[in-house]
């Protein structure tokens, strides 16, 4: 039960983080200001940190999928 809730939470976080990434050719990220050019020098650092957080959440999501699959296999 706990891994199912964690999977839902990680899925929602992953969707949110992917939508926050800067778009290269438009898309949903432009709705949140991703398409606007900014002159702030720290934007590349923020983008790298967002990439790192997205990768970590993605790995946690993948681990939850594996654990849930193993638990389902052991229960049956």
Query: What form results from the Cα inertia axes?
Result: elongated
Any low-confidence stretches, pLDDT <50, length ≥5? none
Major sheet attributes: none
**Distance, first to last CA:** 16 Å
Number of DSSP helical runs: 2
- Quote the beta fraction: under 5%
| Protein structure class | mainly alpha
Residue share in helix: 55-70%
Global mean pLDDT: 82
Q: How would you spell out the order of helices and strands?
A: HH
Rg (C-alpha, Å): 16 Å
Describe the structure in brief.
It comes from Streptomyces agglomeratus. This protein has a domain at 46-75.
Describe the structure.
The chain is 68% helix and 0% strand. The model has no long low-confidence stretch (mean pLDDT 82). The two termini are 16 Å apart. The chain is elongated. The chain is built from two helices and no strands. The protein has a domain at 46-75. α1 (2-20) runs antiparallel to α2 (43-75).
Annotation keywords:
mainly alpha
Topology:
Elements: H1 2-20, H2 43-75
Helix pairs in contact: 1-2
């Amino acid at each position: 039960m706990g891994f199912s809730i964690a999977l839902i939470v990680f899925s929602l976080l992953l969707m949110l983080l992917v939508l926050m990434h800067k778009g290269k050719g438009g898309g949903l990220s432009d709705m949140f200001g991703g398409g606007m050019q900014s002159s702030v020098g720290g934007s590349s650092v923020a983008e790298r940190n967002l990439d790192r957080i997205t990768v970590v959440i993605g790995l946690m999501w993948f681990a939850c999928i594996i654990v849930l699959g193993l638990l389902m296999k052991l229960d049956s």
